[in-house]
């Protein structure tokens, strides 16, 4: 899936355990593990907001988009300009 979840990064930065984060956010450690390991199909905005509040971060610190095969074949993605020459 092209959406990568970086909760591990923020947990390490905040020196917080998965169990502590789950308790403070109000979700089970099992559900947090599903999200953390990238197996979740969806996340509620309320859960995302609670994660951001507890971890003191922005949603983009927890979630990022990573191209899978669009960059591999060199084809530009829809709506994204192809890179042009660099420099004068």
From TrEMBL:
<dbReference type="GO" id="GO:0003677">
    <property type="term" value="F:DNA binding"/>
</dbReference>
<protein>
    <submittedName>
        <fullName>Putative transcriptional regulator</fullName>
    </submittedName>
</protein>
<feature type="domain" description="HTH cro/C1-type">
    <location>
        <begin position="13"/>
        <end position="62"/>
    </location>
</feature>
<dbReference type="InterPro" id="IPR001387">
    <property type="entry name" value="Cro/C1-type_HTH"/>
</dbReference>
<dbReference type="InterPro" id="IPR010982">
    <property type="entry name" value="Lambda_DNA-bd_dom_sf"/>
</dbReference>
<dbReference type="Pfam" id="PF13443">
    <property type="entry name" value="HTH_26"/>
</dbReference>
């Amino acid at each position: 899936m092209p959406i990568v979840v970086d909760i591990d990064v923020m947990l390490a930065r905040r020196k917080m355990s998965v169990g502590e984060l789950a308790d403070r956010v109000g979700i089970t450690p099992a559900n947090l593990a599903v999200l953390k390991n990238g197996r979740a199909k969806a996340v509620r905005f309320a859960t995302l907001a609670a994660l951001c509040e507890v971890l003191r971060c922005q949603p983009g610190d927890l979630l990022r988009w990573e191209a899978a095969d669009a960059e591999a074949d060199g084809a530009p993605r829809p709506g994204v300009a192809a890179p042009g020459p660099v420099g004068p």
